[in-house]
Specification:
6-stranded mixed sheet; 3-stranded antiparallel sheet; 6% strand
Length: 756
């Protein structure tokens, strides 16, 4: 489908030259968008606006692209951006008021946000323009022509692609002068006071978690006041809400907010094809179009279709590891399908329900389609094969026995066993049982259960159909897992099953199981695995946010977040979420050892040139938007960095933070003095023999040290510097002490005497 399906209604409009007299300069890179009309607060001051301009603004609307902006097409062409926008509202009247609103917001602990890449959304991100979405698209477009409508709410069932809809809508319909941003809802419940507010920003937030994102009546009521501030700042808020969370608010309405509903998911076949094409494998679309593959893809929602595309690519990669590819899939050309790949894809996409209904049926049902219902021990064996796929016979036998033991231990009858030595010995041998289930045993007793997708389908079938078995499966998988392994099948299976239904209940059960078995490292590995998936990652980070305030779980949070920060491939949103959770750990931690681990991780971050994250943490602290504990640690993490032989924080090109105030707060914190004093001592030692560098350093230290609140810390520091000689051979400790305070105090408090 082409872009004309969702074409822009904007009329042709001559661009305004950037040097037009009376046009104020943009307040941020990229300039400001065009106002549709003055806000009610400033309407009376807009007399300078010509009638033609006013008519043009009100007719075209604000939330739109310019005439020279052309969207990228499905062939991958880049959009051309050439429109110039003018800011026709009376800037002199409202600028101070808007700046005050934004600054007041920044002083609060608001949600972190990141800017979206418009080019990525328009050209490289997969997007199917399904006609079923057109009514919602047109409804949103018409609503945003009204300057008073500042909030767009997109309601859809889970998995229907509402986030993609929202991102594509703002990328294609909003003027290029807007910052397109996304925020993660790191809160315990939706709160208007935590919504970020910037100038010329379109902010998108998902509300999908049933425990933390359910809109309350107060939240919706307070959105109206937030919308007024959005109008003054020329900004928008876009919320995507899971349908189940909106059921109690279907009658809610507001003249400043507009609600649209997505009642259908996009065509799954088109979603699969588009994802394969954008992933660079257009030739694989033929394997998604076979009769069996189409049948298996039909009926999938958007999220499931994306997973189907990933499954097809995985099967191609698996075949490529076994033998050179028989055909190229980098281009979409008609050619004979690779028979092996075709079988793998069809098997991997299948859910095998008809077969599994027989194997896990009642024994009285008898044989069907050459298959019989499996007894308990064979069901355990099948699950063990499904978990390992390929493994020595002894490993499979052990896993099967352990699972059966878990089941028997949970039986209501303490005396009745499902099997005993006699009944086992009287039945089929292990090799025969393995072969009957469909696996192959070679001469060296290695098992191969090479049925793509079948093993995962077996485990998912049991998880879905036997709720009573879930605790037993969790116990079994946790014990079978190896956290030290890079690709442990039990870890992968735990991640797939725990997040299968997208709720926190199964994750909570896994937590209890892992803690009971003293395997917190397993829990961390499962979370790390699930965090890589765009659809389960939100639940992972929401859970970590909750765990960050729980002492027994803080080590898991710290370990995982530190792993994320060490990974050079971690995206900006992920690293920001990791920082938020570490901040929460530091604020809630009662154990100083936890803070020490966080400080070590942040110092490693500074060494990796990720100082931007630490500077942001310090700035929020100094704006009073967050508590001081994490800001102080971030400052401590930056302190060892040097530039031109002196501390970077005190160099000629320091970061945009108030270093003197930060040092004063560090000196005032008794708990952090053991970390602070050694770093400052090292600062002085590194500059001690250079008169110019030492003079610059000394002058910057005198301000925080002169505060009476840090007297004890200052004395401790100067005593530690008493034996450090300056450029002229004198004691630096005495030099600093001689420049501070009243001479009479120096007669009472001497550096050679300990402070009491």
């Amino acid at each position: 489908m082409s872009d004309k399906d969702f074409s822009s209604p904007n009329p042709e409009m001559p661009p305004t030259p950037p040097d037009t007299p009376g046009t104020p300069p943009p307040t941020h890179p990229g300039g400001m968008p065009h106002w549709p009309r003055a806000s009610p607060d400033t309407e009376g001051a807009s007399a300078a606006t010509t009638p033609a301009e006013t008519s043009e603004q009100m007719g075209s609307g604000f939330f739109r692209r310019g005439p020279n902006e052309q969207l990228g097409n499905q062939d991958g062409d880049s959009p051309r951006v050439g429109a110039s926008y003018t800011f026709t509202a009376p800037v002199g009247v409202v600028a101070d008021h808007v700046e005050k609103i934004v600054n007041e917001t920044r002083k609060r602990d608001v949600l972190d946000w990141i800017e979206l890449d418009r080019q990525q959304l328009l050209v490289r991100a997969p997007f199917v323009q399904d006609l079923k979405w057109r009514p919602a698209w047109e409804s949103a477009r018409e609503a945003t022509k009204n300057s008073r409508v500042r909030i767009l709410i997109v309601v859809a069932p889970r998995g229907y692609g509402s986030t993609t809809f929202a991102h594509q809508f703002i990328a294609r319909e909003a003027g290029v002068r807007f910052k397109l941003c996304r925020s993660e809802a790191d809160w315990e419940s939706p709160t208007v006071s935590r919504l970020p507010l910037e100038v010329a920003q379109i902010l998108q937030i998902d509300l999908k978690d049933p425990d933390q994102d359910r809109p309350t009546t107060d939240f919706l009521k307070n959105l109206d006041g937030h919308a007024q501030k959005l109008e003054q700042c020329q900004s928008y808020l876009v919320l995507t809400v899971a349908e189940e969370l909106w059921r109690g608010h279907r009658s809610w309405s507001s003249e400043r907010a507009h609600v649209v509903h997505l009642s259908d998911a996009p065509n799954p076949h088109e979603v699969v094809a588009e994802h394969l094409r954008k992933a660079g494998h257009p030739g694989l679309t033929y394997y998604a179009e076979t009769e069996k593959s189409r049948k298996q893809i039909t009926g999938l929602n958007a999220v499931e279709a994306v997973h189907a595309a990933s499954t097809i690519i995985e099967q191609w990669q698996e075949l490529a590891r076994r033998r050179p590819p028989a055909i190229s899939v980098g281009v979409r050309t008609e050619s004979q399908l690779d028979a092996d790949l075709c079988d793998q894809v069809e098997n991997a996409l299948a859910d095998w329900r008809e077969d599994l209904d027989i194997l896990f049926g009642d024994p009285s049902e008898g044989e069907r389609r050459s298959m019989r219902p499996l007894p308990l021990d064979d069901r355990c064996l099948l699950l063990a094969l499904a978990l390992r796929q390929s493994s020595p016979v002894l490993q499979i036998a052990t896993d099967a026995r352990n699972l059966q033991d878990e089941i028997e231990a949970a039986s209501n009858s303490a005396t009745t066993r499902f099997s005993d030595t006699g009944s086992v010995f009287a039945g089929r041998g292990l090799r025969r049982r393995i072969q009957d289930i469909g696996a192959v045993v070679d001469a060296r007793d290695n098992i191969s259960f090479d049925r793509p997708g079948y093993g995962q389908a077996v485990l998912a079938y049991v998880w879905d159909n036997y709720e009573i078995m879930r605790p037993r499966l969790l116990e079994w998988l946790v014990k079978a897992s190896d956290p030290a392994g890079d690709d442990d099948p039990a870890i992968k299976t735990l991640a797939q099953l725990t997040f299968r239904f997208g709720s926190a209940k199964d994750l909570s059960d896994l937590r209890k199981t892992a803690m009971k078995s003293q395997k917190q490292d397993v829990l961390g590995k499962v979370l790390a695995h699930a965090a890589q998936d765009e659809h389960t990652g939100r639940l992972v980070w929401a859970t970590l946010y909750s765990w960050a305030s729980q002492p027994e779980m803080q080590s898991v949070v710290v370990t995982m977040c530190c792993d994320v920060l060490r990974d050079p491939d971690s995206s900006v949103p992920v690293t920001k979420m990791a920082m938020v959770r570490l901040r929460r750990v530091v604020q809630e931690a009662g154990d100083s050892s936890v803070r020490t681990v966080v400080l070590k991780a942040w110092r490693a971050l500074a060494d990796q040139n990720r100082t931007d994250l630490l500077i942001d943490e310090i700035q929020k602290w100094q704006r009073k938007a967050t508590q001081g504990a994490s800001g102080k640690l971030a400052l401590l993490a930056l302190m060892p960095l040097k530039e031109d032989g002196i501390p970077w924080l005190l160099s000629a090109t320091p970061p945009d933070i108030n270093v003197e105030n930060g040092l004063r707060d560090l000196f005032s914190d008794i708990e952090l003095l053991p970390e602070t004093i050694p770093v400052v001592v090292e600062w002085v030692r590194s500059c001690a023999q250079d008169a110019e560098k030492y003079g610059r350093l000394r002058d910057r230290l005198l301000s925080p040290l002169s505060d009476q609140k840090v007297f004890r810390a200052g004395m401790t520091l100067m005593q530690a510097l008493a034996d450090v000689q300056g450029p002229d051979g004198s004691s630096i400790g005495e030099d600093l002490y001689g420049r501070l305070g009243d001479p009479h105090e120096r007669d009472v408090f001497r550096l050679s005497e300990p402070i009491r």
